[in-house]
Amino acid sequence: MRRMMRMLIMGLALGTALSGAQAQQPPAPLPNPAAEGLTGSVTAVGDWESLGIAIPAFPTDQPVPTSAEGGNTEALGRNLARVVYGDLKNNGLFKPTGPDAVPGIGYGEVTAPAFDGWRARSAEMLVQGFVKSGADGRLTVGCYLFDVALGQELVRQGYVVRPEEWRRAAHKCADMVYSRLSGESPFFDSKIAYIAETGPKDHRRKQLAIMDSDGANHRFVTNGQATALTPRYSPDYRQIAYLSYIDGRPRIYVYDIGTGQQKLVTEARGPSFAPRWSPDGRYILYSMALAGNTDIWRVPATGGESVRLTNVPGINIGGSYSPDGSRIVFESDRSGSQQVYVMNADGSDQRRISFFGGRAATPEWSPRGDQIAFTCICGNLRIAVMDPAGQNMRFLTDSWQDEAPTWSPNGRIIQFFRTERGSGQTAIWQVDLTGRNERRLKTPVNASDPAWGPVLP
Length: 457
What we know:
Blueprint: E1 6-7, H1 33-36, E2 52-54, H2 73-90, E3 95-97, H3 115-120, E4 125-133, E5 139-147, E6 152-161, H4 166-182, E7 190-198, E8 205-212, E9 219-220, E10 228-233, E11 239-244, E12 251-256, E13 262-264, E14 272-277, E15 283-290, E16 293-300, E17 307-308, E18 316-321, E19 327-332, E20 339-344, E21 351-352, E22 359-365, E23 372-378, E24 380-386, E25 394-395, E26 402-407, E27 413-419, E28 426-432, E29 438-441, E30 446-455
Parallel strand pairs: 2-3, 2-4
Antiparallel strand pairs: 1-6, 4-5, 5-6, 7-8, 7-30, 8-9, 10-11, 11-12, 12-13, 14-15, 15-16, 16-17, 18-19, 19-20, 20-21, 22-23, 23-24, 24-25, 26-27, 27-28, 28-29
Helix pairs in contact: 2-4
């Protein structure tokens, strides 16, 4: 079961300084940043991409062996800074310089940076931190953001984590920096569910898998004996709904991450697929094929009677709720080809919103509520976005086969999977809303059907 991190509060004792010639003053206790009223320079949106951020290794006052993946606390401090650097570099907004390209700092410099030296290196922002190993075996990680030009601290946070959770502390640090500089909600401390694929392309083994937002901490959830598809995290991260062929026919199951148990969502009369959670976690949408028709149904997440939301000739698939839960976007071929439709959460007022050339599939509502991402079948398969009225459509990718978009928790980045022409190899990619910053996410095997969960509590 996932263990919770505890945020440090004002007055936390950070331990004793080193004795003798090496003695240094430890960093100050970490207060609640919201209570400090800290101010600093404001960076315009257009300046983000050229904002220089230096991130030296996080020092420790006393290297102590730990059971963490990163080795002792001295080595772990460098790995923590590397994760922060990777997060900020890969989101497409900043140009940070990581711990392998800048000089290290002493423990006493964490809260008293050598600003003149960083100015000489053309750093505009500075991320410094520390890591300590406590008597109980847990790690204390501090994170500070400084405005180098002003010579001023902007914000600070601290975390107490178990050694195996050190990456979460790094993601939280990156989230703090990202939010303070961009003014947007964080997203690095989140997880992704996806389908891990192995074997020849005409006989794939498809397993449910999960990993951190940067591709680390990968693990398989199912054993691959039954094909798994289209996973979706519950809003509280405790469960994953997905399609499984456990008994030879497609049905929706919910996997409990804490217990490892799974249950059948509903004893559907026909093949069911494409599960989607409601924003409050109370319901699951799914599609069911019955008597030559495919419609969208809603069932309580705890089980019970299903309610039919669409009832027209054709194939209706893939409902995705708006962030407030009031509307649902879905795909339907009732007009003769796959197009995007919206309806109220109770199934009323169903109307088509896509009218461009080509077809549209797998629509997904942005967490911000202002856009809908979908797969445009327009010659090639491309990821596109439009507003909820079906206007202002634009393409974000232009490859051979990109499909199944899923949003980052803050609605800035879209993840999808790409199939290579000829080989049939699949991989998870992501692109930001500019369409310029595209990158592949590393996975140990082929990957498809990504589902980005919310920020971890």
